[in-house]
Amino acid sequence: MINETYKARLSAKSVIRELAEYATARGEEIGYENVFDYSLGNPSVPTPKAYDEAVIRMHQDMDSMSLHGYSPSLGNTKVRGIVADSLKRRFGVDYETKHIFMTSGAAGALAHAIRLVTKPGDEVLTFAPFFPEYGPYVNDTGAVLKVVPARTEDFQINFEAFSSMMNEKVQAVLINSPNNPSGVVYSEETLTKLGDFLRSKEAEYGHDIFLISDEPYREIVFDGEVCPYPTKFYDNTLSCYSYSKSMSLPGERIGYIAVSPRATDADILAVICGQISRGIGHNCPSATPQMGIASVIDETADLRVYEKNRNLLYDALTDLGFTVVKPGGTFYIFPKALEEDAVAFCQKAKKYDLILVPADNFGCPGYFRMAYCIDTEKVERSIPVLKKFVETEYPDR
Q1: How many Å from the N-terminal Cα to the C-terminal Cα in the chain?
Q2: Of 59, 174, 283, 326, whose CB has the highest number of CB atoms within 10 Å?
Q3: Please, which residues bridge with residue 371 across strands?
Q4: CATH number at residue 349
């Protein structure tokens, strides 16, 4: 018999993917340059040249068995050490090789981290707005995801609602900063308060509560700021990272879990992740990108275009009367729609070939997301179209 759970999901496809598919089809009709597609968070800047050169050298100079053979189940040991040294140097946390587990992107890291610290029936709390795939990531393990309502004035943590939802069944809290979809970066004040709160609940309940920190946008931060590193604020933290955004390598599927050296059982958690891999068929990510990123470990793509696009859209949206919190990072902006029903709002936008994503599945009905990882020239051309849409459809705004 076909698994009915997964079969049922065929009728509940990702709204983001559906809109991206629509934009592609519409582009075949009128030219994709005429479709203002803000649907999909696919990096739009070139991979660092140094990465490409490193991979070319590997293929030219290494023997095929060394290049293409199996790496250890926890990941290439040398690469794990290079990752640990980079994190120690950048964030002042005393990581060692034993604290790093290589994964197939941040999704693979989250798949392991959730299984590492929960069992079926446990609860995981996350904060709206949140990446919709957190639902299957958590619920398919047998744990239960529960969503804390948003604090929409700034999209920092809603601690009043968080406190009311915390209970002894909560074994993990899942955060994402810089945040998809809001672009908000959690402040040091927020992370300090979060760490203090979790420590108090660990003492009250008599068990560990792990903080799972989803960090694929960590390097995309604006206005000269730096994203505070959650591990520095709370010992029981698992940092889940991907090079998809910082190096524009989404197709290579390479990332890691970094276990805080001060976490409970820190010295064996990566080893346990290796055992988790046996059950979910992960068995270590591709060897080539592991060695590639190690060759250029502190490099990033040229990420400046995202800040330029943020500024253009934020200014245009506020001029048109939208309520929007200014993103501190990522390549997303998250305005409030001009009517209560954001799905209807985004449907109307499609008539103008503006592809916007309603935020109901992000836990914030009434809002919409724009992924501005597109050419700046296209952002600039979209602004008059956005203005025409608003003035035509919402003349009394």
Answers
A1: 53
A2: 174
A3: 332
A4: 3.90.1150.10
